[in-house]
Write a structure and sequence with these properties.
The chain has helices at residues 3-129, 134-161, 164-168, 171-185, 202-223, 252-259, 267-278; strands spanning 189-193, 227-235, 238-245, 282-288, 291-299. By secondary structure, it is α+β, with helices and mostly antiparallel strands. The termini are far apart. Bound molecules: adenosine-5'-triphosphate and magnesium ion.
């Protein structure tokens, strides 16, 4: 074989070797690509599955939250309805109480009062008839005095339950009468300032009168104040009725609860608040260590 052929044969061999190496590399690379694709597909599948699971979980959680929210809304509305019903109920209880007081006051005055007056007249006649028997006459006189006292007590109880002046002459004279009696009966001295000629609707007058009664009762029970200033004013279509004492006051913490959520109060303040709310008004209580002022604010109806 000559040299030329021998050289050609070598280079063919090298070429072949190189080609088969490249081919092997290609095959390896292809295998790697296939393997990577398979891994990628598996990863994609896992991702899809995880995504699906996550979506299901989110949907489930959202449903749960929606159900909880619906239950919560339902509970709130039931609570609001109950509070509304309770408020209506307490207002109608207060109204029935007012009617009942008015009826009992009238009955006491008209039945027991009339009977005692008749007893008094009979005792007076008997006393005269017994003029010749001084001891008996004196006993009859004593009986007449006792009957008088009973009559007076019945009249006071009846008037305190529902002063007839309130219906006949209005709040100002009824309040003046009530305060005069209070000043006589109690060591506390009340100073009353009222507009001279003011006549308000009956529904407002009875509420103001009950506020006056409850405030003075509260001051007697809780305040330890020697004097009280009561003031009724009408300014800018609002009736402002305030009762100020100079007693122990109410702690800031308690006052915040009483004025805020309306909790931590007794029947007295709750009743005043409901009565005023029914008239479209409100009750404001201010207090510190120098005393307490309770303000009843009521919008003045246009017709007045
Ligand atoms: N003028 C006042 N000075 C100091 N504390 C007061 C005064 N008025 C009310 N309070 C406080 O506010 C509380 C609530 O008063 P509220 O009239 O509602 O109830 P009460 O007087 O205790 O009982 P009741 O249900 O018989 O009226 C009282 O217990 C008292 O502690
Ligand atoms: Mg009270």
């Amino acid at each position: 074989m000559d040299a030329k052929f021998s050289n050609e044969g070598d280079s063919n061999d090298r070429l072949y070797t190189e080609l088969s190496r490249v081919n092997n590399e290609l095959i390896n690379t292809q295998r790697e690509v296939v393997q990577r694709n398979a891994r990628l597909e598996r990863a994609e599948e896992a991702l899809r599955k995880a995504h699906g699971d996550l979506e299901r979980q989110v949907q489930e959680r959202t449903r749960e939250l929606e159900n909880t929210l619906a239950a919560f809304r339902e509970e709130v509305s039931v609570h609001q309805e109950t509070a509304q019903k309770l408020r209506k109920l307490s207002v109608s209880v207060l109204r029935i109480q007012d009617e009942e007081r008015r009826r009992v006051a009238r009955d006491l005055h008209d039945t027991v009062g009339q009977t005692l007056t008749a007893v008094k007249i009979s005792l007076f006649m008997l006393e005269n008839a017994m003029a010749g028997y001084p001891q008996t006459a004196s006993r009859l006189h004593e009986l007449n005095d006792l009957t008088d006292q009973a009559l007076q007590e019945i009249r006071t109880t009846s008037y305190l339950l529902h002063p007839p002046l309130l219906d006949e002459a209005g709040f100002a004279p009824a309040a003046a009468w009530y305060v005069e009696g209070f000043n006589k009966r109690s060591p506390i001295q009340v100073n009353l300032q009222l507009p001279k000629t003011i006549r308000l609707p009956g529904s407002i007058e009875i509420v103001l009168f009950r506020v006056l009664q409850e405030s003075l009762t509260n001051i007697t029970k809780h305040a330890d104040s020697a004097t009280v200033d009561v003031l009724l004013q009408v300014e800018q279509n609002v009736i402002s009725f305030s009762v100020r004492d100079y007693g122990t006051g109410i702690s800031a913490e308690r006052l915040a609860k009483m004025n805020g959520s309306g909790s931590d109060v007794g029947v007295g303040i709750a009743g005043m608040r409901e009565r005023l709310k029914e008239l479209g008004g409100r009750l404001v209580i201010e207090s510190d260590s120098t005393g307490t002022v309770l303000k009843a604010l009521v919008p003045l109806p246009k017709a007045v």
